[in-house]
């Protein structure tokens, strides 16, 4: 009887540990909270049911003019449930050295950015934020997790909260394949 009790207790304990681990496993980039560019908490879960594009951005990069195209893309599809999240990062050539306030002033002043911008974070290497770990793990290439390659890499998340596409930094926001992917996700019903 005692052995049965201990076995049942161990099985129960093992089940509880398994459930706890499963609860903590993040399956969607929309399960995180971040700080926005103004320092306020931004709960990405409020974007569930929308199509979201995460873009790591920088103000002093040869690709910085993509801000204009990103804003146009956002304005074009926002009414349909599309959101772009700009995520400033300084890992690539130290091309985002400014403070959050300087980044905000640059984006709004030069490119009239209205899509949500987050506080500057680390998207690659030591100190990488969990959001970018989830994004890169969801888009392996040849079975291997590929780190962010440069500023303006784009991750498309469908209405179901799963990463559906990844676009290289040089892919312009006006790119036909990128727009086709956005439209395909927007055509899916919200869950």
From TrEMBL:
<feature type="active site">
    <location>
        <position position="61"/>
    </location>
</feature>
<dbReference type="InterPro" id="IPR036249">
    <property type="entry name" value="Thioredoxin-like_sf"/>
</dbReference>
<keyword id="KW-0575">Peroxidase</keyword>
<dbReference type="GO" id="GO:0004601">
    <property type="term" value="F:peroxidase activity"/>
</dbReference>
<keyword id="KW-0560">Oxidoreductase</keyword>
<dbReference type="GO" id="GO:0034599">
    <property type="term" value="P:cellular response to oxidative stress"/>
</dbReference>
<feature type="signal peptide">
    <location>
        <begin position="1"/>
        <end position="21"/>
    </location>
</feature>
<feature type="domain" description="Thioredoxin">
    <location>
        <begin position="23"/>
        <end position="187"/>
    </location>
</feature>
<dbReference type="InterPro" id="IPR000889">
    <property type="entry name" value="Glutathione_peroxidase"/>
</dbReference>
<dbReference type="Pfam" id="PF00255">
    <property type="entry name" value="GSHPx"/>
</dbReference>
<protein>
    <recommendedName>
        <fullName>Glutathione peroxidase</fullName>
    </recommendedName>
</protein>
<comment type="similarity">
    <text>Belongs to the glutathione peroxidase family.</text>
</comment>
<keyword id="KW-0732">Signal</keyword>
<dbReference type="InterPro" id="IPR013766">
    <property type="entry name" value="Thioredoxin_domain"/>
</dbReference>
<dbReference type="InterPro" id="IPR029759">
    <property type="entry name" value="GPX_AS"/>
</dbReference>
